[in-house]
Amino acid sequence: MGSRAADGSGSEQPPEEALGEESRRLTREQLFTVAATASINFSSMICFSILGPFFPSEAEKKGASNTVVGLIFGCFALVNFLVALILGNYLTHIGAKFMFVAGMFVSGCGTILFGMLDKVPSGPTFIGLCFLVRAVDAVGFAAAMTASFSILAKAFPNNIATVLGCLEIFTGLGLVLGPPLGGFLYQSFGYEVPFITLGCIVLVLVPVNMCILPKYDSIPSKGSFWKLILLPKVLLLCLTIFSLSACLGFLDPTMSLFILKKFKLPAGYVGLVFLGLALSYSLSSPLLGLLSDKLPYLRKWLLVSGGLMTALCFFMLGPAPVLHIESQLWMFVLVLVLIGFSLGMSAIPVFPEILHCAYENGFEEGLSLLGLVSGLFSAMWSLGAFAGPTLGGFLNEKLGFEWASAIQGGWALLSGLATGIFYITEATRRSSSLQNPPGNNEERSHLMGSET
User: Fold this and answer.
1) How confident is the model at residue 312 (pLDDT cuts 50, 70, 90)?
2) d(C-alpha 70, C-alpha 410), whole Å
3) pLDDT in tens, 275-303
4) Is this structure's pTM higher than 0.70?
5) What letters, b where the CB count within 10 A reaches 16 and e where it falls short, cover 402-438?
6) Three-state secondary structure call for residue 75
7) Of 2, 121, 289, 294, which is the most buried if we count CB atoms within 10 A?
8) How far is CA 103 from CA 96, 115, 232, 304, in A?
9) Peptide bond into 319 cis (omega under 30)
C-alpha cells in the first residue's frame, strides 16, 4: 500500500518502479475490489429488474394506474439522484468502503420490505408504502453504486473503461436473470418469495464484502462539484447519461404490459423477452470498454453513434404507427438486442470521458475527484431513470406503447446530435488554431514594423 495509487498520498516514485510495485502489491486488492463491485452490480440489477414481469400488473390490481406505476419506478430514481449528488461530495468524509457496505445493507432490507407490500390494503395505502420502501431502497443503492465507481477508478486508474465494461457482464447477468427468475418465482410461489429471496442474498453479501473489500483512503481535494458540472463538455455528457437512462427506464413499467397484451405471453415467458436487451448489453460491454481504453479517440464516435442508434431503435420498437408495420415478437426481440448494444456504445465511454475532461480543466487526481465524478454519473443516471418511467407511464397510458417508445427515443436523438455538433465544433476550432498559431499575428506585425 505504499504506492500513490493505493493510499492517495503525495509521495513520488519513478513511473516504472511505481508500476512494478503496483502490479506486485495491488493484484490481490484489485481482485478483491473487482469481486466486491461485481457483487453489487449483479445483486442490485437483479433486485431492480425482478419487478419488470409482474409488478405493473400486480400494482394495477391494487388500484395503481400506469402513470402511478411509472411514478413508483421513477421515485426510486429521483431519490437516487438526490442521494448520489450529496454522497459524491462527501465520499472522502464518510469513507468509500463504509458507504459501499452500508448501502448494500439498506438495499437488501428495502428489497425484503417490498416483498411484504401485497399484505397492505389496496389503494392509497399500498401506493404510499410503495413510494416509501422504494425510496429507502434507493438510498442504499445510490450509496453502494457511488462508492463502487470511485473504488474502481481508484484501483484501476489507467484502464477504468475496460474494467467497467467487464463488470457490466455482471450488470447484464443481473438484468438477464432478474426478469425470468422473478417471473418464475412469482408464478410458482407468489408475490413475496422473489423479493425475500433476493433481499436475503444481498444481506449475505454484506459481511463478505466487509472482509474482502480493501479500504481506500484519501484526503479531501479542493475540487468543486459545480465547477465540474458547469463545464460545457461535462454538461453534454450528463445529457448523454440522462437520455440513455431515460430510454432504459421507460421500458420498466411499460414493456411487460405491452408484451402481455400484444403477444399474449404468460408472465413467466415475459421475462425471457428481456434477455435480448440484457445479453447484448453485457456481452458487448467488455469489447466496448477495451476499445474505449486502447483507442481513446473512438470514445466520441461511440457516444454519438450510440445515441443515434438508440433513437432509431426506439422508433422501431413499437414500431411507430407512421411506419405502418405490424409488430411481431421476433422483430421486437431483435430491436431489443440492438438497443442493448447501442446503450453500451454510449454508456461505457462516458465515465472516462468525464474524468479526462476534469483532468484537462485542472482538477486534482484522487479519490475526492472520483467521488465527484461517480456521484455525478449516478445522479444523472438516476434523473433519467426518474424521467423515463414517469413520462413513459403517462405517454403509454395516453398514446399507447408504439407512440410512447418513439417519443422516448427523442432523448437519445437529442443527445446524439448535440454531442456530435460539439465534437465537430471542437475539432474545427483545434484545426484552425493549429493553422493560425497565436504567435503568428504578433510576429507578422513585428516584421512589418521593422520593415518600416
Assistant:
1) very high
2) 19
3) 777 778 877 878 887 887 787 788 888 88
4) no
5) bbbbbbbbebbbbbbebbbebbeeeeeeeeeeeeeee
6) helix
7) 289
8) 10, 19, 32, 33
9) yes
